[in-house]
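== Folding task for one protein ==

=== Format: two labelled lines per protein ===

==== Paired sequence and structure tokens ====
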Amino acid sequence: MMEAINDDKLINNKIFSMILPITVENILQMTAGVVSMAMVGRISSIAVGAIGISNILFRIIWSIFKGISTGASVFVAQSYGADNFKKLKDVSEQAFILSIAFSIIFQQILYWKAESLLKVFNPTKDLLAYGTLYLKIISWSLPFAAVILLVSGILQGVGDAKTPMKVIGILNVVNIIFSYILIFGILGSPAMGLKGAAYAYNISYIVAALIGLYALFNEDGILRKLEGKFLLKFNAQESLQLLRFGIPTAFESSFWQFASIILTRVILTYGETAYAAYQLGLQAEAISYMPAAGFGIAASTFIGQALGSKDSELGKKYLKHLVKITIGITLVAGGVLVLFPKLIMRALTDDYEVIKIGAIYLFVMGLVQVPQNLSSLLNGGLRGAGYPNAPMINSGVGLWVIRIPLVLLSTYVLKLPLACVWIIMGIDLICRFILSIIIFKKKDIFNKF
């Protein structure tokens, strides 16, 4: 049940009880991604590229489930704030039905059409073969990934960030252990290389999904405590409401993935070494933006709960504290990217050219982490207040009006160096931050209460 909170100290405690587990969760995920990519980096740069192009397609599908999960999380938060537990149960039921149905459909599409879909990147013959192998294997993890996202969304909606942290922590530990065993052939296992990385990915998601379901439905689980049985019975009205919220969020996520297809083709024109540096740079960049990404989730949860309880002052206080903390953390984490880019890249690869290219990328991204993370926070607040279209518009303008046109102009018309692509990405993030402030002020969300 939602409790009244007005004291600043209590608000801070509430915020940290939410964001610290999310931050730890993101750091664990980041660490596992870096470690896994570092292991793959020891196979070959083509293996790194294969994972990169496969993940773009996988995440386009993943964005659909992220949209459903985010919609469920916001509706759960609002229902929890209003003490409407019937609504909470109904939303959760429909979210499970939609996630399971869509995951089965898209898993089959990815498995049978992997090679055809990857050709959109115009890869070399070897890169296409490696990518097809990897994507076909990890496609089987899609239903389990959908379940994990939904479990996290429901639990975070009621303010429980610790359980998702534990689930993701287990996922990452299992992934690292099995990646090491299966990639390099440890403990009697044959050395499988890239195939081993894919199998480890699947194993970790299966384990985490089962643990997540147990967390929701055990005797102390939130869905077990609700009145009435949890039935997977389709309700068109509830599902459509969930989709109306989830689809803009899914589009927001997919905008980046579709843009990544174009960016991948652009960066590959500079060579596979450049693309490997970009992929490793993305992993390393998570040092900065992943810890602060939790504040966007926290903003959605707390503003959603405040909306449910019709307490605008509480929502304002949450936002004020979240902004301060986000700036503080980002200045430290972003500073690491600016000051030690080469050192970070050396931890991921021993290829000199990859280090050199990736270090420039990290430096530029480090400079724009504060506006990037504040934009994420404001977008989270807009979602929590019931405005999913606003973040979608923000993302669409940044990517398709600024980033992609300028990158294409820079690369194919002006023939500028790769560093100009990194600078354009930074300009995009700054423009999105400015736009998010304008939209947030225009919506005036706290007068909605």
Remarks:
- The mean pLDDT is 87.
- The radius of gyration is 21 Å.
- Residues 259 and 400 are 8 Å apart (CA to CA).
- The longest helix spans residues 272-309.
